């Protein structure tokens, strides 16, 4: 988890560590990330790897968008807010706890949370 950084800074840190920003493909993965963030950095939002390219939403790691968990009235104004944050359960603003919201990629804080950071995802090694 990287806290207090923009989307690009977090993503570059993940790439430097041979991972990428987290892609989410199920309720289980979403719930895992929410629990991880809330137990480690309560009252923070995190960037996940879902981006908007002007036509479609896509995962930065190249995997298929086969699951979404948008909050109410989300996404909106994608051209101005092309990145995605996952709202933690301890963030008590606008009722979208545990859900996604599209966000400006250059923000390091949000209207509801202390700070914005991100979570990296790595390939399993055995």
TrEMBL record:
InterPro entries for the chain: C-type_lectin-like, C-type_lectin-like/link_sf, C-type_lectin/snaclec_domain, CTDL_fold
Pfam families to which the protein is assigned, alphabetical: Lectin_C
Location of the C-type lectin domain: 6-105
Protein name: C-type lectin domain-containing protein
């Amino acid at each position: 988890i990287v806290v207090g950084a923009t989307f690009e800074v977090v993503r570059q840190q993940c790439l430097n560590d041979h991972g990428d920003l987290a892609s989410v493909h199920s309720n289980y993965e979403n719930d895992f990330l929410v629990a991880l963030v809330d137990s480690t950095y309560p009252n923070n939002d995190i960037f996940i790897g879902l981006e908007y390219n002007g036509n479609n939403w896509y995962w930065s790691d190249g995997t298929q968008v086969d699951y979404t968990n948008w909050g109410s009235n989300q996404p909106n104004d994608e051209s101005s807010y092309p990145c995605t944050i996952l709202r933690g359960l301890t963030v008590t603003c606008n009722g979208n706890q545990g859900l996604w919201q599209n966000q400006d990629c250059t923000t390091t804080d949000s209207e509801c949370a202390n700070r914005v950071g991100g979570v990296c995802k790595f390939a399993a090694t055995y």
